[in-house]
Every structure is written in structure tokens, then in C-alpha cells.
Amino acid sequence: MNVKMLIVDDEPIICEGLRYTIPWEELGVQVIGEAYNGTEALRLAEEHKVNLVLTDIRMNGMDGLELAEHLMSALPNVRIVIISGYEDFAYARQAVRLGVSDYLLKPVDIDELLRLVRNIVAKVRKEAEQVNRDNENRMMWLSNVVRGVNSSYDFSSVMPALQPGAQFRMIATQMNRFYQWFSVTSSAEHKSLQEAWMTHVHLSLEKHAIHCLSVFDHTNLLFTLCVDTSNRLATELAWNEAIDDMLQAWQGPESLYGSISTAYDSLADTAEHCGEARLLLNYHVLDEQAILTAEFKDQADRKRDGVPEHFPGAEMVQNLMHALFRYDLAEIETLIADIFGFFRSRGYLLDEAAIAYGEIRVLLQQRLRESGIKDLDALNRAPLDLDALNSYAAISQIAKEDLTAVLTLIEMSGISKPYWIIEKAKKYILEHNGSALKAADVAAWLKITPSYFSYIFKQSTGKSFTEYVNQFRIEQAKQLLLQTHDKVYEIADRVGYKEYKYFVSIFKTYTGMTPTEYRDLNTT
Length: 524
Fold this sequence. Notes:
Elements: E1 3-8, H1 12-20, E2 29-35, H2 38-48, E3 52-56, H3 64-74, E4 79-84, H4 89-97, E5 102-105, H5 110-147, E6 168-175, H6 178-182, H7 187-206, E7 210-218, E8 221-228, H8 236-249, E9 256-260, H9 270-281, H10 284-287, E10 291-292, H11 294-303, H12 313-325, H13 329-345, H14 350-370, H15 392-413, H16 416-431, H17 439-446, H18 450-461, H19 465-483, H20 488-494, H21 500-511, H22 515-523
Parallel strand pairs: 1-2, 1-3, 3-4, 4-5, 9-10
Antiparallel strand pairs: 6-8, 6-9, 7-8
Helix pairs in contact: 2-3, 7-8, 12-13, 12-14, 13-15, 16-18, 17-18, 19-22
């Protein structure tokens, strides 16, 4: 690493002489500029986070000693070398005792200056290496905690000195509409975003005297361990204001939102509060709240009492099947919007909606296989990545992609017409079950030949028309036997059998017992 140095003297010619007569680059020093007064020097030093300041002691306005005091307050690790005349020797020695790295007498001995700078460069680099090692250890410790891996590393040994009663908090941040941005950008852009994101969080919170340590657990999930080093943020409101300032100041491709854990005073509890911050992020989808807190979660849970609730999955799948076999993409998109609109309106979190959608996918697979559609890889997707797909719009888009792929399979299979015929036949059976049902009558209603109807019905259901109708009616009769006190002959008539003895015979064929025996066995 290069050591960044600032040269300060109220005589420009001296600044230029020091800058251009010495091969600083060969020493590992980058001269970031020159300042001709203490005020300008302080501004440049803070702006560039310099490691070394070479300054004259006598200057108009803010002199070298006053500058040194300000620098050591603003940049505690900065090295300062003061150049003084012989008559200022006692003054310079005082500066050294106050913390100035060293002093040189005028006229400056170049060899002495080179030796002094080499020593400072070596010390700065050694300290930087130690800081890097400490940071790597700290990052590894926090990464392990975030991932749930036990670590015996003594993190407290590298924490800044804490005021009595200082408390920790875990903050988790994510970017809105991440999937839309992520899907059209490169890995280099992802890395650049992460660096800018982490830097922004740290700089913003440090303005509130919050010390930070951050790790990414996902491209779109940054965990930040925070400690108020000055005990200034004594209230929840103060913390929320600090987080809000950070979120509002972000100028990335999409806005950020974040969660903040409750306070804790032992690093041994970090994993628990990491989990708390992670859980709170899930509540962002409810009303796109920017700051998620335990209080917000409690309020939301009271409103969400009973969620997730039973949802009409079979009906949803049936509607999707109809749209798929009609090749109606517009209706499919409408149905997807209705499905996820149902989940959102009832307060489902994304993980709950994803689980429900997974159940719909499984049921849809079963129905499609029954209809002769194979190779349903489009519906065998891995669990949704809800850190990337962190909105209802994103998971709705995934569902649309799934069903568009299924639609292509159906088009390629060429079996949608027979399917639709059978679905209409099943609906006809349901609506006319109490009357006589004949395959020829259904075929005539469908405007196809009886032989073609019988063929595709058997192919689609695995049963003949008569077998299907009998099984359907016996299932209805079984429910009526258990749920009503109707006479057996009344139930036979209701489900479509006008001859009592024939009904008893068919019932026994399918169940192995008479209707009366079935009722007695299952109601005692």
C-alpha cells in the first residue's frame, strides 16, 4: 500500500521543493497535494484520509502545532512530522511530547527526512497489515455467526473501546426490486454495487458515532453489526432516525429497506439477533415499510392473526388447467395476478406465499400428468430465492414463466382438444347426475361421434364412461349415507339410480358391502 502524504507550508516554493526533489513514489509515498495554510491542510487531510502530514511549525493563522492538534482529533492514526527552525526547538519538542511523530530542523537534511519517512512508511504498513488481519478475523467471525456456524474467535478483543453500558444491534438491509436489476447486470456490476452499498452503510452510520462491521450473506442481503460507541442513541427513535438517514441518502439503482434488531449487550447473543433482523425483513412486503422493527412486526402479526389461512388451491388449479388447454396466455396472467393478489390481500409473507404456490405447482403437475403431459421440468424448480425475488411482482413473474413453459409443452403435445372435451364431459356428468347418463347422449352434446368420445374418455380417465359414472355416483352415495338420514332408496334416486336393486348391486361391487352395511359400519 502507498502511504498518503500532505505537504504543508505557507511558502509555496518550499512545498514544491519538498514535493519534486524527492522520489516519494520509490519510498511508497503518494503525495496527495500541498496546502499553504492550516485550514486548507485540515480540509485536504480529512478529505483524503492521509497517513502522513509534513508541516512547517510557523504559519500565518493556524500554525503547525494547532494543526497537529486538530489532525490528531480528526484522524487519530495520522503521522505528523513538524519542520521547525532552531529557535523553535523547545516548541517542537513540546509537539513531539503531545503526539507528533517527529520533527526536523531547518534547513532540512534530505537524508534524515528520507530515513524518517522510510520508518514511518514501515510502521504504517505494519499497522495496516495488522488491521487487515483483525478485519479478516472479524469478518470471518461475523460470517460464521450469520451462517449459523459456531466460532470461538474472541471478537471483543478487536472491538473499539466501549463506553459503559454500550449496546449492540444487528441491522439487515436489502434492495427493492432486486431481481429485475440483477437479471440484466454483470457480476462485476454486482460486486461494485456491494462495495458501494457497504461503504454507504458504514459512512452513514459513522456520522451518528455508530461503529459498524458488515458481511453479505447473499448478493441482496447485508448484515451489519452496530455499536453506539458514544452512547448517543439512547432511544429507539434515535436509532430509527439514524437508519432512516442512511436509507434516504442511498443513491443506488433501487431503494434500500432495512430491519433493526432489539438491543443486546453481549456478543454471544449476536446470532439470535441476526435471526431477528432476518425475520423482520420478511415483513417489508406487507406495506413496503422502509424500516422494520420488532414493534412493527408485533402490530402486523395482530392484523395477520390466522395467516396463512386455507386457500382454494384445487379451484385455482382447475382454472389454470382450463386456461392452459385453451392456450389463453392473457387469462393465465390474470389468474396468476388473482392468485398472488389473494395471498397479498390476506397478509401472506413472501415465504408463506411461496409455500402456497409450491402446493399449487404440485397439484398442477398431478393434473397435467393425468391429462397426458409429460416432462414437466418447468414445474420442478428449486425453492424460490426470496432474497433475490423479494417482492410479489418478482415471484408472480416466476409463476408466469413456469406456466408459459407448460403452455409450450401442451402446444407441442397436441392433446389439448381431447382434454378440453373430457373436462366438458365431466362438467356435464356433474350437472346431470340425477338423470340417466349415456355416452351417446354426451357425445351428441359435444358434437362428436360416440366411438371417438368413448376412445378419448378411456384414454384420458383410464375408465370407460359407465365405470366413471358408476364410481362418481357411488362416491356421492357414500357421502349421503354418512351425512344424512335419508332412506337408501331415496339416496339411490338422488344419485341417478332409478332401480333400487341395481343400485345395491353396483354399490356392493365397488365397496364390498351393501349400502346399509356401509352406513352401519361407519356410523357406530
